[in-house]
């Protein structure tokens, strides 16, 4: 079995980081805070500027990252982006070193994680899927939850890095199980956000004050993360996307993508997901109606504007 466990657990050798978007940027900064030098790449050079100014090394391709670092984290939007970063013309697999630990924190199809793991293993390296939950706020504060799939013997080596960016690092099983856990979580999140938005909209139209209704929900059995931590109604809560015209946070496009992954997984496992399927359609319609770049909690605004219902 390939092992990277011989590497000193306390070593501060360079870590490669590919993908410096809304999530990747603060995650990389937390690695820096813990003293790890970074080898950085992003398809958009502007995303690398502040890291370069901070003295981190910026390179011109994922292959160059793999040449200079034997621990690499990827944080990319879609399955296509991840496959390109690994298997593309200038991908990680072109120059990956034997014994390297490759951690993908993107949310992608579990079957693609499994395929990539096989390709990585052929090169004498180790692949683990480690998608995250918690959003941009948790990424900034270093309180993400990582759901990790891969060879259990390598979990400690992965946890050394992931623990710098998250407060919960959970081993889920073989490669792909991290993605499975993430997809299930996000399907429930979408359903509960839609439910919270519908509830708040109904309550407001029945004459209830939104802050009062939220207070009642959060001391009652309807309480959920969407109501008590990430409320979708503008003016109810500070520091959430609904307080900032739904800017930042977790984009509607990404939620639609994750629900599509849930739909595919449900089809392949013959699992009924009635509400998951409806949630997928709602977020797809939102994308088509101009909400694609807004946070997924903008489903409340979408419902408010659909007066014809």
TrEMBL record:
<dbReference type="Pfam" id="PF03446">
    <property type="entry name" value="NAD_binding_2"/>
</dbReference>
<dbReference type="InterPro" id="IPR013328">
    <property type="entry name" value="6PGD_dom2"/>
</dbReference>
<dbReference type="InterPro" id="IPR036291">
    <property type="entry name" value="NAD(P)-bd_dom_sf"/>
</dbReference>
<comment type="pathway">
    <text>Amino-acid degradation; L-valine degradation.</text>
</comment>
<keyword id="KW-0496">Mitochondrion</keyword>
<keyword id="KW-0560">Oxidoreductase</keyword>
<feature type="domain" description="6-phosphogluconate dehydrogenase NADP-binding">
    <location>
        <begin position="15"/>
        <end position="173"/>
    </location>
</feature>
<feature type="binding site">
    <location>
        <begin position="76"/>
        <end position="77"/>
    </location>
    <ligand>
        <name>NAD(+)</name>
    </ligand>
</feature>
<dbReference type="InterPro" id="IPR029154">
    <property type="entry name" value="HIBADH-like_NADP-bd"/>
</dbReference>
<feature type="binding site">
    <location>
        <position position="107"/>
    </location>
    <ligand>
        <name>NAD(+)</name>
    </ligand>
</feature>
<keyword id="KW-0101">Branched-chain amino acid catabolism</keyword>
<keyword id="KW-0520">NAD</keyword>
<dbReference type="GO" id="GO:0006574">
    <property type="term" value="P:L-valine catabolic process"/>
</dbReference>
<dbReference type="Pfam" id="PF14833">
    <property type="entry name" value="NAD_binding_11"/>
</dbReference>
<feature type="binding site">
    <location>
        <begin position="13"/>
        <end position="41"/>
    </location>
    <ligand>
        <name>NAD(+)</name>
    </ligand>
</feature>
<dbReference type="GO" id="GO:0008442">
    <property type="term" value="F:3-hydroxyisobutyrate dehydrogenase activity"/>
</dbReference>
<dbReference type="InterPro" id="IPR002204">
    <property type="entry name" value="3-OH-isobutyrate_DH-rel_CS"/>
</dbReference>
<dbReference type="InterPro" id="IPR008927">
    <property type="entry name" value="6-PGluconate_DH-like_C_sf"/>
</dbReference>
<dbReference type="GO" id="GO:0051287">
    <property type="term" value="F:NAD binding"/>
</dbReference>
<dbReference type="InterPro" id="IPR015815">
    <property type="entry name" value="HIBADH-related"/>
</dbReference>
<comment type="similarity">
    <text>Belongs to the HIBADH-related family. 3-hydroxyisobutyrate dehydrogenase subfamily.</text>
</comment>
<dbReference type="InterPro" id="IPR011548">
    <property type="entry name" value="HIBADH"/>
</dbReference>
<dbReference type="GO" id="GO:0050661">
    <property type="term" value="F:NADP binding"/>
</dbReference>
<feature type="binding site">
    <location>
        <position position="257"/>
    </location>
    <ligand>
        <name>NAD(+)</name>
    </ligand>
</feature>
<dbReference type="GO" id="GO:0005739">
    <property type="term" value="C:mitochondrion"/>
</dbReference>
<feature type="active site">
    <location>
        <position position="182"/>
    </location>
</feature>
<dbReference type="InterPro" id="IPR006115">
    <property type="entry name" value="6PGDH_NADP-bd"/>
</dbReference>
<keyword id="KW-0809">Transit peptide</keyword>
<feature type="domain" description="3-hydroxyisobutyrate dehydrogenase-like NAD-binding">
    <location>
        <begin position="176"/>
        <end position="302"/>
    </location>
</feature>
<protein>
    <recommendedName>
        <fullName>3-hydroxyisobutyrate dehydrogenase</fullName>
        <ecNumber>1.1.1.31</ecNumber>
    </recommendedName>
</protein>
<feature type="binding site">
    <location>
        <position position="81"/>
    </location>
    <ligand>
        <name>NAD(+)</name>
    </ligand>
</feature>
């Amino acid at each position: 079995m390939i092992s990277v466990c011989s590497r000193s657990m306390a070593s501060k050798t360079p870590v490669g980081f590919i993908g410096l978007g809304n999530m990747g940027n603060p995650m990389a900064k937390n690695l820096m805070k813990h003293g790890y030098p970074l080898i950085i790449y992003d398809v958009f050079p502007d995303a690398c500027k502040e890291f370069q100014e901070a003295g981190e090394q910026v390179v011109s391709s994922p292959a160059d990252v793999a040449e200079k670092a034997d621990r690499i984290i990827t944080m990319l939007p879609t399955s296509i982006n991840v496959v390109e970063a690994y298997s593309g013309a200038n991908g990680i697999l072109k120059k990956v070193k034997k014994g390297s630990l490759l951690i993908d924190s993107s949310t992608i199809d579990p079957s693609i994680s499994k395929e990539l793991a096989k390709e990585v293993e052929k090169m004498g390296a180790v692949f683990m899927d480690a998608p995250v939950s918690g959003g941009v706020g948790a990424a900034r504060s270093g309180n993400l939850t990582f759901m990790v799939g891969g060879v259990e013997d390598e979990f400690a080596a992965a946890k050394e890095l992931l623990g710098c960016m998250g407060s919960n690092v959970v081993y889920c099983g073989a490669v792909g199980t991290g993605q499975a856990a993430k997809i299930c979580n996000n399907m429930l999140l979408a359903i509960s956000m839609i439910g919270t938005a519908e509830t708040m909209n109904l309550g407001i139209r029945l004459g209830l004050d939104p802050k009062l209704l939220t207070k009642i929900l959060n001391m009652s059995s309807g309480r959920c993360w969407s109501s008590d931590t990430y409320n979708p109604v503008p003016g109810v809560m500070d520091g959430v996307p609904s307080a900032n015209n739904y800017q930042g946070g977790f984009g509607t496009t990404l939620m639609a993508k994750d629900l599509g992954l849930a739909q595919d997984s449900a089809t392949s496992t013959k699992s009924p997901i009635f509400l998951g399927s409806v949630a997928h359609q709602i977020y797809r319609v939102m994308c088509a109606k101009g909400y694609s770049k807004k946070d997924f909690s903008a489903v409340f605004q979408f419902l408010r504007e659909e007066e014809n219902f």
